[in-house]
Amino acid sequence: MHYSEYKHTDPALLRALVETFPFAAISINGPEGPRIAHAPLTFRPGNAPAGALEFHLAKANPISSDMTVGVPVTILVQGPGAAISPSWFTSSFPDPDSDRSRTAPTYNYISLIMHGRLSFMDDVALQRQIKDLVNASEPQGGWQTKELAADLWQGWRKLIQGYRLEITSFDLTAKLSHGDVPEDRRGVVEGLLQRGVLADENMAHLVGGHDGTSASLQSLIRSLKH
Length: 226
Description:
Elements: E1 7-8, H1 12-20, E2 23-30, E3 33-40, E4 42-44, E5 52-58, E6 72-84, E7 106-120, H2 123-137, H3 150-157, E8 160-175, H4 185-195, H5 200-209, H6 214-223
Antiparallel strand pairs: 1-8, 2-3, 2-6, 4-5, 5-8, 6-7, 7-8
């Protein structure tokens, strides 16, 4: 479902998406095909405008044997997605007997695919990534890493490996009904809110507020955290 009119190239959107939807799928080519792991990401400034990503995995994870320095890695961050019904296009098809033979259901979504090559983090960088990850996800006044028993803090770090990926390229798709008849978007928002399942409310917020610009999309994505 990739269309050029839904692509975005602004690197600033990557940080907004990663920080709003940090849990990602991490894929590499293993000896018998693609291998995938999941982990929350920490966005970092990088050597290129797109930035860099840090994460950690258990050394016992089966993928770890293939996670070597320099290996190409693909990371997927998935934002909200929602099925869109043509019955919500109330401007284009205002009557129950309107001819809808030249339209069909579709799907709105935000997807970010990032590419780069792997490097290892040392223990100092790993500790910083863990602490930043905790601070980003805990509520105000919530748990802090300094509360963890020192022996556990030392021991658990020996069981995980920290990784860094400089983002060399990315593919960001945001299909939010912006290519549809503008007057139909109101019906899409109302339909999503009325259905109200899964990510419908978030998608309604995105469809209703997106004006097609990168700045608008970045602001809307960040607002989903609040």
